[in-house]
Amino acid sequence: MEFLLLAALLNLVGFAFSDKVYFASGNYTAGVYGSGPTQQFFSANYTPSAWNFVRPQTGIQRYPLGMCLPPPETVVGSDTIRPGPLIFDNDGHLVWDGTNFGETLVFQLETYLGKPHILTWSGDFLATGVGNGYVSLINNRYELVARFTTDLTGITGSTGSDFHEVRITSRNTAVMTAYQTKMMDLSPYGGLPEGFIADSVFQEVNITSGEPLFTWYASEHVDPGECFGRPGLGGAYGPWDYFHINSIDLSNDGNYLISSRYCFTLYYINATNGEIIWRLGGKNSSFAMGDGANYSYQHHARWIFQNDTYARLTVFDNAAESNESNESSSRGLHLALNFSNMSAELIQDFIPYNKTLSQSQGSVQLQPNGNFLIGWGFMPWISEYTSSGELLWVAQFGVVGGDFNEAYRALRYNWSGEPTAPPSIKVIRSSIDNTSNAYVSWNGDTRTQLWELLGSNISSVSGAMSLSNTSRRSFETALTVNTTAHKFNFLAVRALDEGNVSLGVSEFSSIVNGVSAILFGDWRVIFAVTVSVWIAQRTISFI
Known about the structure:
The structure is a single chain. The chain is mostly beta strands. The protein folds into 2 domains: 2-414, Kelch-type beta propeller (Neuraminidase); 424-538, Immunoglobulin-like (Sandwich). It is built from 1 helix and 40 strands. The strands form 10 sheets. A 6-stranded mixed beta sheet has the order 2-3-28-27-26-25, with no helix packed on it. Strands 34-31-30-38-39-40 form a 6-stranded mixed beta sheet, with no helix packed on it. Keywords: Signal.
């Protein structure tokens, strides 16, 4: 199945209903439901974002995606939102809640030892806008395979990996960004003679041993005067991040393409000696930049095609930061490079539906069918376009202007999840008729097609009776049982794949001790005997 991974920061306020998705909702966009509406479930204690398809997907192929929304730990009233990566499907429904892996920004798929693995970063978000932490490598059973970080030496500063980028090479090594504070004479740039910089670094390490194999420092190859920022005081507690590395891509010849946000430049780095082979964009571009091919404050540079004479790549052109802008709108860019005459031309740009600026983050990803998926970074949207720039759909996962409704990248991959934990079940008894509802889900599973409801008088699969089969509906599915016709003390579910092969069985949940529910039309009021509050939740149908 294809999934889209989105690394984001969200301040999730309010909640929507289980598996709820909005379509062209003006109330959502206006913030009526909060700055980041979330969903809630009976069978799992998760609060994923609720999407609003501002421009729904009409007349195009609807195939499964997934999305990662890793919110920071944010206190909203008396509630604390758990940080961590989340995967959604194409319709905005939860597939996997990975908050047990902690707060993250990098969240993507890479091949390690010939198999796809999830990469996620964890650590400290520093006040300077960079990170100090480590990377987790997770297999398709959601098991931790490895944990690693950078290994830098110096007088002061971070020695752990930064959250902006991590890649796995064909040698099964890892390449990561990092930042290290160093003293530098900043007087030529308007700063202190004994100032400090936050030096941009990328390093390749042996995943198994943690041994550093190659390390590149921006300060050894790029003079700060080549970039566009100002140092300020540049003191030890406010080092000047003049370069700001935010992406790395691996080249066919083993070299590296890196992005410097504040130099407005993509640098092509020799993997043997670290020398700069060429620059694309910025003050000292090696290429003549064609009309519309320039960019600024950019993110997420990626090769599409590359040989000795010609190449194509994508990059997200923010064209702005918090206090400055160079264009009226951010863009996704598809560029062509001609190495014979050293020219760069714009093939196509992709404009947000409301033509606005995203002051940070963002991504562009070529799809297998030739479309382009754009994550709008600071602006909480995802869009898909044809190769000619035709907008196909737009979804928002938060309200513009809401706190921390941001997505670092939006990326789509093939992914098959096979969790080792069993499915989850929550039984809710009706207090006005002879029915019980069993709400079932399986965090991270992508294979289940049917839920088989099992009844038993003991909390064991031994002697259990099959009561019904129900098609899976998104993350959580409601199964109804008549407790007069089927007098059982316990209910469980068995997950079945498309060939009716059993994938796993939930624990048995007591009907006698289940939560009571009073039904009023299409509203369900849940009352927990041990809790002196009630929650009204509207019953919805799966879209």
